[in-house]
Specification:
Layout: H1 2-12, E1 29-36, E2 42-49, H2 117-215, H3 218-222, H4 224-233, H5 238-257, H6 269-273, H7 285-296, E3 311-314, E4 317-319, H8 320-327, H9 331-340, E5 350-352, H10 353-362, E6 366-369, E7 390-391, E8 395-400, H11 406-414, E9 431-436, E10 442-447, H12 455-463, E11 467-473, H13 480-492, E12 496-501, H14 510-518, E13 532-535, H15 544-558, E14 561-562, E15 569-578, E16 582-591, E17 594-595, E18 599-602, E19 605-613, E20 619-620, E21 622-623, E22 628-634, E23 643-647, H16 650-686, E24 690-698, H17 701-714, E25 719-728, H18 733-742, E26 745-749, H19 755-764, E27 767-771, H20 774-788, E28 792-809, E29 813-826, E30 830-835, E31 838-850, E32 853-854, E33 857-859, E34 863-868, E35 879-888
């Protein structure tokens, strides 16, 4: 029964046909979490929240687990089937409560699950997304359709434009062809018209010629008046004009026959070709005159053109082609003329100015010679007018022997202490100072070194000075450098004031000084001369006022003046290189005013004044005549004694400096070549001389010059000093490389090597020697050169032996039996064989025997046997001189 009920229930079970809304189930809930890391970093992370499905516990209903059971559908109406009477319908059973139904009763049912809010929202979003995608697809399709339409329209427009352009081109070609055809037709028409007009003109001209010929006849002359009247009546018609022309021609013909030569009216071609009587015209007087001149000149035709004399500018050297161009002559002619002069050159080779001058004169031109040195023309300027000159301070140079107190005297005048700062207590630079006296007058002093190596400095000091103070020590009198200073002062033609120093010493003898000066033509006033002398003491400061008065008196006599209102000119007293300041030159301004910013040239260097420093270390804006200043701003260190001139333009200053540098290089190259030839001939004649290569670096230019001069004087024919390089400034790597390449040494005078140069010299074994006193430099150079000298071989006499008998031994040869008459004879010594006091042989002693035994030496009074090496011509009575050679160390 229960099975039947179950079947009935299964059959009557059906799904509800009500429409339901399709939605997607809501996915897991999401969220964002911010993660923090070290160093202030953070990151946002997307997380999902999933709900865990919990299975229903036993004994719970579907409603308790959250599930809803669909309502039981009503059973479908059974088809109307007639019930059998024998089978009565069962009585309806009472429905059980739902909770009381057994578990197996729900197996055949379909349980529907309701959608949650999240699932509904997800399905709504999916629906909206689908609608949005459909709308976007529709918009995209519309845009593509519009683009296709636009492309089709543009293509159609381009096609129409191309067709239109093609049509226009065809129209243009057709119009051009029509225009060309019309122009050709018009040209042909004009040509035909011109041809017809020409034909008519020719016919008219022929007719006129015939009429003129008829008018020239006598009958035409008699009928002239009626024709003229007829012409007047027909003047308005073409026929009348023709008749008028005929009448005029006839009148001219009649006038010609009557002798009327004057032509009236307009000259026509016909009148010019036909004379009055109908004959051809004769030549004019001008034509006859030209023919006569041509015949007189010999029929040569036109004369040769007059030669143009040119001013040819010729430099020191010029290429042949360039010279030909400047003379406007052919290059072949110039080369031919040079060959006639004996100069075989091509057109591209240079010739000197003298040859070019002869060549220019040969061709009849005027020459104007120029030189590269023309850049220096006008450098010094013109002489100053007298009214522009103003008084200036005197320039006084202190000269004398070393250690006679020159610098101490200047210190006493300046109230300074320079001598204590000089190395070794001697002056090795030129110092320039300016002293202002109590009366307001100023004196410029130049302190020169007294050592013999500084001859060039003393010479420069004497050239730029106005007055020379000759300092002579009262206890030492006249010395060699004193004499040299007197010679320099006389050559410079400057007055001398004798300052007899050290008069406070007990051994002072000023009269002795005056007497010795007489030997050198220096006569002081106390002895009747014109040279002032002052006794001073630099240590105690006595006599300084008298010395100043003597200087001022001498300057008043000289009337020293200069023009300060012009470009400055001066002389470089000293030059040096300083770290941080560059090239620094001590300049004594002679005339003009030197200002900051001036462009100047000093020797082979140029520059612009960046700073001016006086003798006390103060910066000044300008320096006038007779003022010593240090100039900063040079491109390089000039030579001491170079002239300084202010230039208007920087370009000209650069050109002058380049010209002087080129001259200096050529001069050094010429000296180097000459020295090489001399060394070659010396090596051929006397043997190869040994050289000591030197690299000299000094603090100032004057010291470098003095070192070079002293080093060159030390050498001899066998050993000499080779100056590889001398300059101002510290020792650098290039100096070390140069010394290493030539195995030389480096001398640093008051300078030092930098760190890199020291390391390189230590690594390469280059000797660097530092000095601050020139005495030590000269002594060390002498010792070095002395060590390079070959030792001197000196002969030392030993004794004489007289040959008493000569023995002839078979194996040995001739042996001399000798008696030692003087000194001693040693085995292996050198011998000379004397015959009648004439040396006939010099050689070695090969054997020395006494009683058949070899001995080391034989003394005076003993007999011995001697055999000479490789010599047998000995005779009885000859003398043998014995000597030995020893080496002795040589010194310079």
């Amino acid at each position: 029964m229960s099975e039947a009920n179950d079947k009935d229930e299964r059959k009557s079970l059906s799904l509800n046909k009500q429409p339901r809304k399709l939605e997607m189930r809501k996915g897991p809930e999401g969220g964002q979490v911010r993660q923090s890391f070290s160093h202030g970093r953070s990151k946002t992370v997307q997380v999902e929240v999933r709900k865990k499905r919990v299975p229903p516990r036993p004994g719970t209903t579907a409603g308790q687990t959250g599930e809803t059971t669909a309502p039981k559908p009503e059973p479908a109406a059974a088809p109307a089937v007639q019930a059998k009477p024998s089978a009565p319908a069962p009585a309806p059973q009472k429905e059980r409560p739902r909770n009381d139904q057994p578990r197996h009763a729900t197996r055949g049912r379909v349980v529907l699950k309701q959608l949650t809010a999240e699932e509904k929202a997800a399905r709504v979003r999916a629906l909206h997304g689908a609608r949005k995608e459909a709308a976007e697809a529709r918009v995209k399709a519309e845009e593509e359709a519009r683009e296709r339409d636009f492309a089709e329209r543009r293509e159609a427009e381009e096609r129409a434009a191309a067709e239109r352009r093609q049509q226009e081109e065809e129209d243009r070609k057709r119009n051009d062809a029509d225009a060309r055809r019309r122009s050709e037709e018009e040209a042909a028409k004009r040509l035909a018209e011109e041809h017809e007009a020409k034909r008519k003109a020719d016919a008219e001209a022929a007719r006129e010629r015939q009429e003129v010929s008829r008018a020239a006849a006598p009958a035409a002359a008699r009928a002239g008046a009626p024709e003229e009247r007829e012409g007047d009546s027909d003047r308005g018609s073409p026929r009348g004009a023709t008749k008028a022309r005929r009448g005029k021609t006839a009148d001219r013909a009649v006038a010609t026959r009557r002798g009327e030569s004057r032509r009236t009216g307009r000259l026509t071609v016909t009148d010019a070709l036909v004379s009055g009587d109908g004959r051809q015209r004769q030549r004019s007087l001008a034509a006859v005159r030209r023919a006569r001149e041509k015949a007189r000149s010999g029929g040569r035709g036109d004369e040769a053109p007059t030669k143009v004399v040119r001013d040819v500018v010729v430099p020191e050297t010029i290429v042949v082609q360039e010279l030909a161009n400047r003379m406007a002559e052919r290059g072949v002619d110039v080369v031919r003329a040079l060959m006639k002069m004996g100069v075989m050159v091509t057109i591209n080779q240079p010739i000197d100015a003298d040859t070019a001058e002869l060549l220019v004169s040969e061709f009849g031109h005027r020459i104007r010679r120029v030189s590269d040195s023309d850049v220096e023309v006008g450098l010094s300027g013109d002489d100053d007018p007298v009214e522009s000159l103003k008084p200036r301070a005197p320039v006084v140079t202190v000269m004398g022997h070393v250690d006679h107190g020159k610098t101490s005297l200047l210190d006493a005048l300046r109230k300074t202490d320079v001598v204590s700062r000089e190395a070794g207590g001697i002056t090795q630079h030129i110092g320039a100072y300016q002293v202002e006296l109590s009366g307001g007058a100023t004196i410029t002093f130049l302190d020169t070194p007294g050592h013999e190596a500084f001859t060039g400095m003393r010479s420069r000091g004497a050239k730029v000075t106005d007055i020379v103070i000759l300092v002579v020590a009262a206890d030492d009198a006249v010395m060699p450098q004193t004499i040299e200073a007197i010679r320099h002062a006389k050559l410079a033609e400057v007055p001398i004031i004798v300052a007899i120093n050290k008069c406070d010493l007990p051994a002072a003898n000023p009269d002795k000084v005056r007497q010795q000066l007489l030997q050198h033509e220096i006569v002081v006033e106390s002895l009747g001369g014109d040279v002032q002398d002052v006794e001073v003491s630099a240590a105690k400061g006595t006599g300084l006022d008298k010395l100043q008065e003597a200087i001022l008196l001498q300057s008043e006599i000289l009337e020293l003046k200069a023009n300060p209102d012009r470009n400055a000119e001066g002389v470089v007293v000293e030059a040096k290189l300083e770290v941080g300041r560059g090239s620094v030159a001590t300049v004594l301004v002679q005339r003009g005013t030197l200002r900051i910013g001036d462009v100047f040239v000093a020797g082979a260097e140029w520059g612009r004044v960046r700073a001016l420093i006086d003798d006390r270390g103060n910066n000044v804006e300008s320096a006038g005549p007779a003022e010593p200043v240090e100039v900063i701003g040079l491109q390089g260190a000039p030579e001491a004694g170079d002239l300084l001139s202010v230039i208007d333009s920087e370009s000209r200053a650069r050109d002058i400096a380049e010209f002087r540098q080129r001259q200096s290089r050529e001069k050094r190259a010429a000296v180097g070549q000459r020295g090489t030839l001399e060394q070659m001939f010396s090596a051929i004649k006397e043997g190869q001389a040994q050289l000591l290569p030197l690299v000299i670096k000094a603090d100032v230019q004057g010291s470098a010059e003095a070192l070079v001069g002293s080093a060159e004087k030390i050498g001899t024919d066998e050993v000499k000093v080779e100056i590889l390089h001398s300059a101002v400034g510290g020792i650098n790597e290039s100096d070390v490389i140069l010394a290493r390449a030539s195995n030389g040494i480096i001398i640093g005078f008051n300078v030092r090597a930098n760190k890199q140069a020291r390391e390189m010299a230590q690594r390469d074994g280059v000797d660097i020697r530092y000095y601050s006193i020139i005495y030590n430099v000269i002594d060390d150079l002498k010792s070095l050169l002395s060590g390079m000298l070959a030792p001197a071989v000196r002969e030392r006499f030993l004794g004489y032996a007289e040959i008493r008998e000569v023995f002839n031994i078979t194996k040995t040869g001739k042996v001399a039996g000798c008696m030692i008459t003087e000194g001693v004879v040693r085995r292996g010594c050198k011998v000379r064989l004397l015959r009648d006091d004439v040396v006939i042989h010099e050689g070695d002693l090969s054997s020395l025997r006494r009683f058949k035994d070899e001995v080391r030496e034989v003394k005076q009074g003993a007999e011995c046997g001697m055999a000479l090496a490789n010599y047998q011509d000995i005779q009885t009575g000859d003398m043998i001189e014995c000597f030995e050679l020893e080496e002795v160390e040589r010194t310079l």
